[in-house]
């Protein structure tokens, strides 16, 4: 297995070939002629065993993922995804201040988040008028030779428990080391801001409209270049985690497709729906929401949580791709920090 890696967070049904090293263009059709990429879905077994919904917690911090019924006016038309609506259509240009992804969409790194300066109340944050922009948190880590830039690479499924934690963070399935998580005690802070261990920033991801779906794709996803610890691995700042919390209204006919590395865990309605754990080359998985609605506890017309966690833990390349027609009804939330006991 090659050590070169690909880190992709994707949302679109149409894929494109990689343009490594290309700076990209704000044009939303920038990759339309690049050719089709096979996004064959991973078998259901790759998602890991799905447990029952957690009974711990409620509301913004966990528990049942169903939030409330949302009107079509609030949720947007059924063919609009990522926060769009019939009255507020997709922007067709890269938003001001954003860096263009070299395939689809763009991103902007925002203010730093520190454990000392931002309380949980301050961090329960949303964007206003986001359109097709989703709020996330990205945290930079140092090379430690154990969890980040460790010598062992490969698939590492079953690292996280099948149910999201009550604080909306993934839970380590075992306290024992795994093939790619050599220091399990650090795992709980991959998605928590800890001074001295990581440096956290707000991150906005803009998804470009693409033939009726929404797409973000970068074959050179290095948003923390010039920020964070600035270790400068192969000319870029590697070793980071990305955390996304949003909601979607299930209306029927939706899908979510992902291709990339390293670990990717997607939870729908608090249940593990995609498990691409490990330090590995580009791998893909897809979710046919209708086919898995019963398994995930979904009913049409209701709104459910969508939580995604993606890690970049090894050098050589970084691709981030996601493709979907999910109808997201909020712009992403930074959940309150709860330190595990």
Number of distinct beta strands: 18
Class per helix and strand makeup: mainly beta
Number of domains: 1
Q: Rg, please?
A: 18 Å
Proportion of β residues?
25-35%
Secondary-structure element pattern, one letter each: EEHEEHEEEEEEEEEEEHEEE
What is the rounded distance between the termini? 38 Å
Number of helices: 3
Helix percent reads under 10%
Q: What overall geometry do the principal axes of the alpha carbons give?
A: globular
Commentary on this structure:
This protein has 341 residues and is mainly beta. It has one domain (10-328). It is 4% helix and 28% strand. The chain is built from 3 helices and 18 strands. The chain has helices at 72-75, 120-123, 293-296, and strands spanning 10-11, 66-69, 99-100, 106-113, 133-141, 154-155, 198-206, 208-210, 213-218, 240-249, 255-260, 264-268, 271-275, 278-279, 283-288, 302-312, 320-324, 327-328. Strands 2, 3, 4, 5, 7, 10, 12, 13, 16 and 18 form a 10-stranded antiparallel β-sheet that branches. Strands 1, 8, 9, 11, 15 and 17 form a 6-stranded mixed β-sheet that branches. A two-stranded antiparallel ribbon has the order 6-14. Strand 12 (264-268) and strand 13 (271-275) form a beta hairpin. The longest helix is centred in the N-terminal third of the chain and has 4 residues, at 72-75.
């Amino acid at each position: 297995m090659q050590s070169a890696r690909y880190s992709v967070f994707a949302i679109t049904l149409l894929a494109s070939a990689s343009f490594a090293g290309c700076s990209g263009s704000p044009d939303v059709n920038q990759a339309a002629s690049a050719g089709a990429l096979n996004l064959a879905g991973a078998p259901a077994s790759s998602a890991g065993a799905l447990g029952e919904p957690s009974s711990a917690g409620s509301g913004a911090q966990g528990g049942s993922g169903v939030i409330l019924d949302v009107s079509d006016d609030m949720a947007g038309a059924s063919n609009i995804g990522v926060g769009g609506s019939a009255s507020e259509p997709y922007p067709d240009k890269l938003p001001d201040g954003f860096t263009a992804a070299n395939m689809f969409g763009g991103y902007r790194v925002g203010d730093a988040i520190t454990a000392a300066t931002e309380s949980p109340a301050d961090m329960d944050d949303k964007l206003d008028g986001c359109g097709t922009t989703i709020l996330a948190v990205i945290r930079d880590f140092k090379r430690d030779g154990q969890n980040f830039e460790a010598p062992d690479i490969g698939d590492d499924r079953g690292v996280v428990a099948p149910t999201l934690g009550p604080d909306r963070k993934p839970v380590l399935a075992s306290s024992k080391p795994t093939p790619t998580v050599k220091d399990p005690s650090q795992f709980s802070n991959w998605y928590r801001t800890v001074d001295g261990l990581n440096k956290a920033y707000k991150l906005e991801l803009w998804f470009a409209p693409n033939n009726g779906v929404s797409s973000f794709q970068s074959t050179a996803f290095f948003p923390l270049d010039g920020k964070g610890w600035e270790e400068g691995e192969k000319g870029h700042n590697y070793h980071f985690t990305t955390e996304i919390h949003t909601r979607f209204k299930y209306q029927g006919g939706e899908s979510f497709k992902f291709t990339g590395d390293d670990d990717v865990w997607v939870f729908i309605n608090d249940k593990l729906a995609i498990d691409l754990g490990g330090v590995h080359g580009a791998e893909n998985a897809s979710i046919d929401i209708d086919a898995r609605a019963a398994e995930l506890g979904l009913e049409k017309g209701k709104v459910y949580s969508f939580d995604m966690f993606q890690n970049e833990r090894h050098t050589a390349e970084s691709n981030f791709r996601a493709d979907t027609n999910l109808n997201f009804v909020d712009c992403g939330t930074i959940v309150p920090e709860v330190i595990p006991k």
